[in-house]
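FAQ

Q: What does a record look like?
A: Structure on top, sequence underneath. For example:
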């Protein structure tokens, strides 16, 4: 880690001072008294440089993938998703607007019910099997100082097979997550479900194609929250 221990950066028009906890490839993990931030290097003062690539990590990334894994990765990388039509968006926009209101009010029961309704509608549109959504609880911290926003499962007990959990409160302050952030996580986890069943992937990867598919749906749904 760099010798720099304290950094400053702008957040919502105010200067924030925090302790450097970790140097990532694109961002610096900074801890303040109340929050943990991942700040792009150009925004921190004094200026910092990202760590040099590790030879050990490089060799790990070049692990021997099976033919099936390579095929899944390539398919995930290049496949697009069909955008939602205006007709399909009408009922989804109503659900997302209500979801945003439920998060602002901290209504756990409504958050869970509406999340399941929205995902059920998406599954119907894209001809996917059911996906149970569990909401509530606070995010868990990662070893690197970040947070787990959600989790997609494809095994386990019958009631939790093909299910996802999306945490509705932050890790430290346990405040309810902002509606757009919650929605982005919800669609991200549904994206794994889409890849698993629509694309027929045994392994779902965070490829550029995956993020583009998630963004396509998220951008259409977030309109009602703006």
């Amino acid at each position: 880690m760099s010798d720099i221990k304290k950094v400053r950066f702008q957040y919502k028009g105010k200067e924030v001072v925090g302790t450097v906890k970790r140097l990532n490839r694109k961002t610096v993990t900074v801890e303040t008294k109340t929050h943990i931030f991942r700040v792009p290097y150009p925004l921190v003062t004094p200026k910092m440089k990202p760590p040099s690539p590790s030879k050990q990590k490089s060799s790990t990334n070049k692990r021997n993938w099976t033919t099936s894994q390579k095929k899944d990765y390539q398919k995930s990388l290049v496949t697009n998703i069909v955008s939602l039509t205006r007709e399909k968006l009408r009922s989804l926009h109503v659900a997302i607007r209500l979801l945003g209101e439920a998060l602002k009010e901290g209504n756990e029961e409504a958050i869970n019910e509406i999340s399941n309704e929205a995902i059920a509608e998406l599954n119907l549109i894209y001809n996917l099997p059911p996906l149970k959504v569990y909401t509530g609880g606070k995010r868990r911290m990662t070893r690197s100082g970040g947070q787990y926003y959600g989790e997609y499962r494809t095994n386990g007990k019958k009631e939790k097979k093909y299910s996802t959990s999306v945490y509705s409160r932050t890790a430290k302050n346990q405040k309810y997550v902002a509606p757009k952030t919650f929605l982005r996580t919800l669609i991200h986890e549904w994206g794994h479900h889409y890849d698993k069943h629509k694309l027929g992937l045994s392994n779902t990867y965070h490829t550029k194609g995956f993020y583009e598919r998630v963004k396509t749906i998220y951008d259409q749904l977030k309109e009602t929250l703006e």
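Q: Is there anything notable about this one?
A: The chain is about 40% helix and 20% strand.
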